[in-house]
Design a protein that fits this description.
Rossmann fold, about 290 residues, elongated, alpha/beta
Length: about 290
């Protein structure tokens, strides 16, 4: 049984991500955890120094959170009514990142699926600080769904890599799982800068080919492009439905996201983006 965490702030954006998750795993037996975190918007001196319950503030916010989760669950059952899916709700006085980390550990979550907000007037997705922090700190595959993206089966998956990762079962399992669910083709994309692959990279590439032997896959080489440009250009040439990257230390992924001097990273992305951590402990059979 899959365990999938669905954070929600009750926005259209988060509802869109929930709809995507339910359709992506419609044939799988799943428990979905609906999560809403809350903190008081304003901290008065009295609120800090005296118990919040005396003001009724915490109770009111918690009640609103629980009511919102009940509404979401009802909406899901009215819209999808899938007997393979069950739901659990969690309203938590905590920050989003801490609560997600705790739940992933406590429940053995397989995927976190959340929405991302498109930039106003631009054809790009801005990964805000919350999304980037989830990518960085949560040891579980995280799927970010662009605002207003309508579900389409991920028949063509784009997997950019520099072949500098000694691929492990735990990293490849989610890619193969999704590919098998939808009879997808995996497009492995490597950006070359004019030099041959090192022996270690060749070994990693061969290992990747072994992992993908039971699913359709193609290896692609492009020359002297920035990785974000390479991804954007590939999307324009092929109808890619899902982008997958491994967040590995010292890889181009880390350079792309975590060494930026700004908090929000503009990325020309119109499709869901699955980020796989490099060190999640996971029992696997492929």
């Amino acid at each position: 049984m899959k365990k999938i965490l669905l954070p929600t702030d009750f926005s259209d954006n988060s509802w869109n991500a929930i709809k995507y998750a339910l359709q992506l795993f419609k044939e799988e037996t799943c428990t979905f955890y609906l999560l809403n975190t809350y903190t008081p918007i304003v901290y008065h001196v009295e609120y800090v120094m005296v118990s919040p319950s005396q003001f009724g503030l915490a109770d009111a916010i918690r009640e609103s959170s629980i009511k919102g989760l009940d509404t979401i669950e009802k909406q899901i059952k009215e819209t999808f009514n899938n007997p393979k899916h069950s739901f659990k709700k969690r309203a938590s006085f905590n920050t989003l990142i801490l609560e997600i980390k705790e739940l992933v550990e406590e429940k053995g979550i397989d995927y976190v699926i959340m929405g991302t907000k498109g930039a106003t007037g631009a054809k790009e997705v801005l990964f805000g600080s919350n999304t980037v922090q989830v990518f960085k700190h949560v040891k579980c595959p995280v799927l970010a769904v662009p605002d207003e993206f309508e579900f389409e089966a991920p028949k063509d998956i784009l997997f950019p890599t520099d072949y500098e990762i000694n691929y492990q079962d735990k990293q490849i399992k989610p890619i193969v799982e999704i590919a098998k669910l939808f009879t997808s083709r995996i497009n492995v994309l490597h950006v070359s800068y004019g030099t041959d692959l090192l022996d270690e990279q060749e070994q990693n590439k061969a290992k990747l080919e072994t992992y993908f032997k039971k699913v359709a896959h193609l290896f692609h080489e492009v020359s002297k492009q920035d990785i974000t440009d390479a991804i954007t250009n590939f999307q324009q040439k092929a109808r890619i439905n899902l982008l997958i990257m491994i967040n590995n230390k010292h890889s181009f992924f880390e350079n792309l996201f975590f060494k930026s001097t700004i908090n929000q990273i503009g990325f020309h992305l119109k499709i869901p983006f699955l980020v796989i951590p490099s060190d999640k402990k996971n029992k696997i059979e492929i």
